[in-house]
Write a structure and sequence with these properties.
By secondary structure, the chain is mostly helical. The protein has a two-stranded antiparallel ribbon.
């Protein structure tokens, strides 16, 4: 599933703090005989310019592909879809942040004015903001890089 509401069998919304229940049903697009989504890894491999790309270039390309696969035809995400994408694709960075005021402020902004949509630039700013406040970032900083 791509993470967008259209691929979720029910329309019930789940909070970032509460994972959506696993579904045993096939997504409507598969059942209707629509084309199956190409995995991100294959999409990434198909970008010839990234063949010899750095890890950082591939990381940003992956973020762009994940966003594009969930975005509407205008290239934007609803705030609900953004929260769902964070829940499913950015879980390690948001885990344990629920009580931090800055995290609560960011999530509250996604709950307000739900008719507004998030473009790619705002999505990347959101990812960077959540990364900077995460406990996982500190763990990453402590990884030993030499023997």
């Amino acid at each position: 599933m791509c993470g967008c509401r259209a691929s979720v069998p029910s329309t019930k919304q789940y909070s970032v703090n509460q994972p959506a229940p696993a579904s045993t049903k096939k997504s409507p697009s598969v059942a209707a005989g629509m084309p199956k989504r190409i995995p991100i890894a294959k999409q990434l491999a198909s970008i010839k310019a990234l063949g010899k790309g750095s890890d950082l270039e591939k990381t940003f390309a992956t973020a762009a592909l994940v966003y594009n696969n969930s975005a509407d035809p205008e290239g934007k995400l609803s705030k609900a879809e953004t929260k769902n994408l964070l829940q499913t694709q950015f879980q390690g960075f948001i885990q344990g942040q629920e009580n931090k005021p800055k995290y609560q402020e960011i999530i509250s902004a996604l709950d307000e004015e739900s008719e507004n949509k998030i473009d790619f630039e705002d999505f990347m700013i959101l990812l960077v903001s959540l990364t900077l406040m995460s406990d996982l970032l500190q763990e990453i900083k402590n990884v030993k890089t030499t023997k």
